[in-house]
């Protein structure tokens, strides 16, 4: 069994981006909007800030109190859309319940939507993008494989299905209403799990030598764990650890999307693009 080391791979990608960012006179800028005081969001935003600073990008954090009027947030996003020095814009989710999440996210210009949440966005959502990079790095071929995705969120499940189909995989999507989940997971050559529920998948639910991608992040007794029971290691061929698997890749692919946005907006084409799109 091989652990798919997202932490090490993300560090390599950051170094690649850093070397390219330093060659440009104007610094790329990522703007992050937060509303409220969600503790988990604070951690995620800080991780994104550190990654941006490491590669030499500027990080603009616009923090709104939960009492803010939704129209004020919309107005600010429209201003950022028009600002030629802002290359990427994300709205950190989840938002407090009183806000219309879709309306706010859909205000972001599709050419600056580096989270890839908008319909018609120019970018692949970072989680799906990061998983595909893992597949490429470890030379895991998706063509003709039976892939089961558990979870249908717009941030993970739906983009994962889309990206796997691009690689000519046969894809099944399962969710909270799926009956007899095991009958699907047992047939999966590659299983991608993103539901946020500890130990939802155990070794009795997978086929021998399956590839397991654990996207889940759960905090139990102050420790972080995924959606997959560690006992799958006795049976699978590959597994992303939690932490240290998909998480670090998600952050670095957001940075990579921002760099792509910067170059596209400035009409820049270089060997970095060519090598990473072959």
What does this structure look like?
The chain has 278 residues and is an alpha/beta fold. The protein has helices spanning 6-21, 39-55, 70-82, 101-105, 126-137, 157-166, 181-185, 246-265, 271-275; strands at 2-3, 29-35, 58-64, 88-91, 146-150, 170-174, 190-193, 211-214, 218-220, 223-225, 238-239. The strands form 3 sheets. The chain has a 6-stranded parallel beta sheet with strand order 1-11-8-7-5-6. Strands 3-2-4 form a 3-stranded parallel beta sheet, sandwiched between helices. The chain has a two-stranded antiparallel sheet with strand order 9-10. α5 (126-137) packs across α8. The two termini are 29 Å apart. The model has no long low-confidence stretch (mean pLDDT 94).
Provide the structure class: alpha/beta
Distance separating the two termini: 29 Å
As laid out across the biggest beta sheet, the strand order is: 1-11-8-7-5-6
H/E series: EHEHEHEHHEHEHEEEEEHH
Number of helices: 9
Determine the fraction of residues in helical runs and give it as a percent range: 25-40%
**Please, what is the average pLDDT?**
94
Share of residues in strands: 15-25%
Low-confidence stretches: none
Task: Tell me about the largest β-sheet.
Answer: 6 strands, parallel
Key terms for this structure?
278 residues, alpha/beta, six-stranded parallel beta sheet, three-stranded parallel beta sheet, 9 helices, 11 strands
């Amino acid at each position: 069994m091989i652990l798919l080391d997202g932490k090490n791979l993300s560090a390599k990608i950051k170094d690649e981006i850093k070397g390219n960012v330093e060659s440009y006179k104007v610094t790329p800028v990522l703007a992050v909007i937060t509303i409220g005081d969600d503790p988990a969001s604070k951690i995620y935003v800080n991780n994104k800030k550190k990654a941006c600073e490491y590669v030499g990008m500027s990080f603009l954090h616009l923090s709104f109190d939960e009492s803010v009027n939704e129209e004020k947030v919309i107005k600010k996003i429209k201003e950022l859309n028009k600002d030629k020095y802002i290359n990427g814009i994300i709205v950190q989710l989840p938002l407090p319940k009183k806000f219309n999440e879709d309306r706010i996210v859909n205000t972001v210009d599709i050419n600056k939507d580096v989270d890839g949440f908008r319909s018609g966005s120019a970018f692949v959502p970072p989680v799906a993008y990061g998983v595909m990079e893992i597949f490429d790095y470890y030379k895991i071929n998706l063509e003709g494989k039976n892939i089961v995705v558990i979870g249908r969120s717009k941030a993970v499940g739906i983009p994962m299905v889309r990206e796997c189909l691009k690689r000519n995989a046969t894809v099944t999507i399962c969710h909270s209403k799926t009956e007899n989940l095991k009958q699907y997971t047992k047939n999966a050559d590659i299983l991608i799990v993103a539901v946020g529920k500890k130990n939802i998948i155990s070794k009795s639910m997978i086929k021998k030598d399956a590839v397991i991608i654990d996207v889940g992040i759960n905090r139990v007794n102050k420790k972080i764990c995924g959606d997959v029971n560690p006992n799958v290691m006795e049976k699978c061929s590959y597994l992303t650890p939690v932490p240290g698997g998909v998480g670090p890749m998600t952050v670095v692919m957001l940075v990579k999307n921002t760099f792509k946005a910067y170059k596209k907006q400035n009409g820049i084409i270089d060997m970095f693009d060519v090598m990473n799109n072959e």
